Amino acid sequence: MPYEWTPEPPHHKPRWELSLWPYRSLLRRDFVIFIGATALLVALPLVTVLGTPVLWGLLPFFLLMIGGLWAALHVSYRRGEVLEELVVDENTAHLTRHNPKGPAQEWQANRYWVTVHLHPKGGPVENYITLRGGDREVEIGAFLDAAERLALYDDLKRALRS
């Protein structure tokens, strides 16, 4: 699951933290391997035209394809650098969303008035989860898939009840 609970320290006041991030199927360390393997597989047919003028005609398209793939994956990584942190102590619930561009967004409410809501249909995504407290309602975990949002909803309800 692309979220992690940090349990409360045994010697401190009641407090727990939840960190959420988008799922990554291609890790950064595998990025170079993927680009290299793709370049090798695409360049394999170019071996047949080595030493001919055709190679120079195909080479710019090959380099453009590899560069475009690299740029697309890089943009995907930048957009996915989202981190949401929910910190709940004995009095307050504080949600911070760190966006890839722009400032962090913050929301805070009295812990006892915070409620978790699941919107199975009608939200921007299926099984949309919101936290309501004070005068605002904020989304949480919109980048998770539908099954992960359901599991998160159950976990949040249990955690906020305790």
Strand content: 25-35%
| Residues in helices, as a percent range | 25-40%
CATH class type of the largest domain: Mainly Beta
DSSP helical segment count: 3
Overall structural domain count: 2
- The count of β-strands is 8
End-to-end separation: 22 Å
Shape: elongated
> What is the helix/strand order?
EEHHEEEEEEH
Q: Measured on Cα atoms, how large is the radius of gyration?
A: 23 Å
CATH topology of the largest domain: PH-domain like
Gist?
The protein contains 3 helices and 8 strands. The protein is α+β, with helices and mostly antiparallel strands and 162 residues long.
Please provide a written account of the structure.
The protein is elongated, with a radius of gyration of 23 Å. The strands form two sheets. The protein has a five-stranded antiparallel beta sheet with strand order 1-2-3-4-5, with no helix packed on it. It has a three-stranded antiparallel beta sheet with strand order 6-7-8. Helix 1 runs antiparallel to helix 2. It has helices spanning 28-43, 53-79, 146-161; strands spanning 3-6, 15-20, 83-89, 92-98, 105-110, 115-119, 128-133, 136-139. With 162 residues, it is an alpha+beta fold. The model has no long low-confidence stretch (mean pLDDT 88). Helix content is 36%, strand content 28%. It contains three helices and eight strands, in the order ββααββββββα. The longest helix is centred in the middle third of the chain and has 27 residues, at 53-79. It folds into two domains: 3-22 and 82-161, PH-domain like, CATH 2.30.29; 28-79.
